[in-house]
Input
Amino acid sequence: MHLSKRVQQLKASPIRRLNIYAEEAAKRGIKIHHLNIGQPDIETPSVFLEAISNCNMKTIKYEHSRGSKELISKIQGYYERLGIHYDENEIIITNGGSEAILLSLISIFDEGDEMLVAEPYYANYNSFYDILNIKRNIVRTYAEDGFHLPSREIIGKSITKKTKGYLFSNPSNPTGVVSTKRELDDIAYLAKKHDFFIISDEVYREFVYGDRKAISFGTYNDIAENVIIIDSISKRFSACGARIGCIISKNKEFMEAIFKECQARLSVPTLEMIGACALYDLPHDYFESTRKEYNNRRKILFEELSKMDGVFMREPEGAFYVLAKLPVKNAEDFAIWLLKDFNIDNETVIFAPAEGFYATEGLGRDEVRMCYVIDAKDLKKAMRILKEGLIKYKKEVEK
Output
């Protein structure tokens, strides 16, 4: 018996690939500061579990394949407060943002079709591309430019007659970049000119720092038929395990296709949707407090990394990630060494090697993605471990 070729070609997630080494270190009594996974440590608002606890259903039944009317209404209200109107049939609830992306790609792409991709990009997109045999048309971005997109003309060189979509996150995972109005205007222009979909992953919308602003593609009314918004409660409300996301689009044909896919997987968990409804009732100052906390951590991470010899990165603008170049030949080897052979007071650190966030062979080998999702005290400890680890590694391993 043989498994399918599509599953055999899947690669392990670079975000979780080192977990086996972390588990072994933990067995040895080593405390590990996790900077590898975007799992916020901020407490999930209590209203989520309270709403579920107060549920008096005698039987937990299937919900509608589109999602509960109440949750869709709450999401409509959330977008109304952003100045964007969506009808009820333009929103479908999904099992997290990841299912929303997968269902969208299934609806749009046939095998061999092409996706416009700016690298580096969220590594788990690769699993979807590989399963569906979607070819990547690469647009390179550079740390020196803060990972912002190049000109419209340069992007256009990566578009072919088989390009059917552009998928990106704004604010960005893994770079922390926040797309400018110029960048969004250029993508909108190219999508209209070449008639492709824009799949805009906007799950980090609230986490933008300084005077920057995350502009939603939902505000681009002239290309509404091209736009698909991916959203989720995971990061916004620190509820990653609840697995509640949504697909939003004014393209009726696309949404009808998504609905048929959702019918095939029956429905999203009923209780989690009840909890999610309560989250959307939280006052807006909830986001102000969480943003303030992440901003403080962002400053710590950037300041500490800036002090380390040979480390290069730009200050992250949004989300809770930074992509940094380290003075090592292979960041994955260094990360494994930190887990196996190095600690300070029985503590060490784990991050995600960045090679898996690139499609171009060889890029990102000396880079890492770090998430500032642990408290400030532990973050400072993690930075000390990284700094001392780099010094020892350069002297004893890469000498």
About this structure: The radius of gyration is 21 Å.
